[in-house]
Amino acid sequence: MENLGYVRVAAAKPEVKVGNVDFNIKKIIELAKQANEKGVKIMVFPELSLTGYTCADLFFQSNLLEEAFDGLLKLSDFSRAEDIDTIFIVGLPLVYDNAILNCAAVIGKGDILGIVPKSFLPNYNEFYEKRWFAEGKKLQGHISIGRDRNIPVSTHIIFKLKEVSFGVEICEDLWVPVPPSSEMAKDGAEIIFNLSATDEVAGKHTYLLDLILQQSARCRAAYVYASAGFGESSTDLAFSGNCIIAENGVLLASSKRFVLGPQMEIADIDVELIRNDRIRHNSFRNRNTNEQLVEVSADNYLFPQMNPSQILDYRHVNPTPFVEKDEVKLRHRCEEISSIQAWGLAQRLRAIGCKNAVVGISGGLDSTLALLVTVKAFDMLGMDRKGIIGITMPGFGTTARTHGNAWALMEELGVTPMEIPINKAVEIHFADIGQDPERHDATYENSQARERTQILMDMANKTGGIVIGTGDLSELALGWCTYNGDQMSMYGVNASIPKTLVRDLVKGYMIGEKNEKVKATLQDIIDTPISPELLPAAADGTIAQKTEDFVGPYELHDFFLHAMLRHSFSPRKIFSLARKAFDGVYDRETIKKWLITFYRRFFSQQFKRSCMPDGVKVGSVCLSPRGDWRMPSDAASALWIKEAEAL
Fold first, then answer.
1. Catalytic (active-site) positions
2. 617: which of 138, 146, 572, 622 fits an S-S bond (Cβ 3.0–4.6 Å)?
3. pTM for the whole thing?
4. Rounded to 5, what percent of the chain is helix, strand, coil?
C-alpha cells in the first residue's frame, strides 16, 4: 500500500462565535489550510461548527439556517479555489423535507461528497435537541447544493477512497447501545469521524476516553473525535474542546482541555494494521447486509505521496511493544501475567495429581522466572515448596556469579536445591561420539544442553514430578534453543513471554518480595548479561558468551516479532517502523542486518516450534502450533529475505 498504509487525519477545534457563520467559516478555513500544509488527508470539526452548537432557539431563525447553507457553499468553493487536498467534515443545521437536521457535511476538492444527519438526539437535562432537530435515523435521500447534484443524505454512508473507507457519526450516536459506527465498521468503514459537542462535568472526560477507546477496539477501527470548545456559550454548560484520536483501542492523540484558542490533533492512522486485524477475525469476514448502506465512491481523491521520512511524523512507534512503560500499569501487568502463568501451571499440576516439579536453575533470567512462577503455583495450591526440586547443573561455561545466584535463590525460596555438575558426563559423551572437546561448535554446546535436559527428565521420573520449561518466546522465534534440549520440557511456563518482558516480570517479583536476600539476588540476576554459558568463561571468570553478540539485540527481534505476528506487516514496513522506533539507538544498516537474521532464523527454526510443549498463552502473540501460529517447517523464506535485503 502507498505511504506504507498510513493515512494522516486530524481532529480540530476552531474558535467559534455563536450565530456568526462568517467568523466560524474563517476559523475553519484557517485550520483547514494548516492541516493541508501538514499533509492531513481527512479532518473533522465539531458538531454544528458553522453556527456554534449553543444557538438554542436561534436555530429556528431562517436567516441563520440560510447563512449556514451558504456557508457550506463557501467552504466548498474554498476547497476548490485553494486546491485543498484535505477532505474535511463540518457540522451545520440543514433544512430537509420540512425539518431541521443536525448534519455533518463531507467536503473534498470542491465537492460535497455526502450529508450525514445525526441519528440519535439527546433530550434530557440541559440537552433538548429534539426541540430544534429531527432525528435522522434511517433517513435516506438526496439533495442538491450549488453545483453538486444528488448529494446523498443518509445516516449510513461509507465514503470509499482508494486508500481508506470512512464513516461519520455525530456526538450522541456514540453513546447509544448500538452506535451507527458499529454498523459502518461491519460495512467496511476503517476510520470513524465524530463531530461532537460534549459538555464537561466532573468525571465525564475519563468516561469519554474509555468510550472512544472501547468503540475503536470493538470496531477494529480508528476513531477521530472533535468536540466543541472555545467560544461556545457557557450559559449553562462548559465545553472544553476535546480532540481525540484512537486506533484499535489505543490512544494516539488527545488535546489539552480548557484551552482559550484553536487546537488541532494530528495522527497517522495505520489502515493496514486495521485491515490485517480484521482479516484475522471472523466477525469482519462476512459483509453486513445492511439495507440502509449508501456507498460514495471517491477513488479519484488520490492522496499525494509523502516523503518516506515524513510518513510517521505524527505517530509514536513503541520500541518495546510487549512492555508497558507506565510504572504503575507495568506493575499491574506483571502481577496479572505472573498469575496467568502460575494459574496455568497450577491447573496442570492439579489435573495430573502431581505434587513435585523439577526446574533447571542456571542463575539467568529465564530459569529464575520459571522458578518464581512455579513457587507461586505451589503457593496457590497450598503445596509444600519442598516439592519443587531446583537443580543447578554447572558446566564448562558456568561462572561463579550465576552459580552463586542460582544456589542462593533456591535456598532462600525454600525449594529443594540440588547440584549436579555435567562436565564429566559430557566429556564421556564426547569420547563416545568422537567429539574433540577443544572444538567449540554446535555439538559442543548442544551436548551440554541435552545432558541437562536428560538430568531434569530423569529426576522428574525419579521424583514423580514434571519438568518445568524455562525457554521464552524470543528464543522460540529465533530457534535459539537446543532441539530436544532446553527446547523440551513437560510444561513451558515462559513459552509466550518475550525476552524484553522477562526482565520486567522478574523485577515485578523483586518489588513485591519481602525477603531482602531474595531481592538482592534477583537484582543481580537482572543485571547479569544474557548467556547460555555453554562456552568457557573468560580468563577473569566472567561470562564470555553473550547471546546478543551473536543473534542480535532482543529488543529488535521482539519488535520484529510483534510487528510480523500481531500485525502481519511486511519486511519493508517493519524496517520503516523500526527505524522510527530505534532512531538514535541503531543505525539503518544495523536494523537491516538483524531483520534479515530474524527472518532467516524464524523460518529455518520452525521445526522446533512444531513440537513445543504445552504452555499457557499470556499475551496477543504466541507461537504454539496448537493455537496462534501454524506454519510448515519447510516453508520458504525467500520472499521475505529478498524484500529485506532490498531495503
1. 47, 118, 171
2. 622
3. 0.89
4. 45, 20, 40
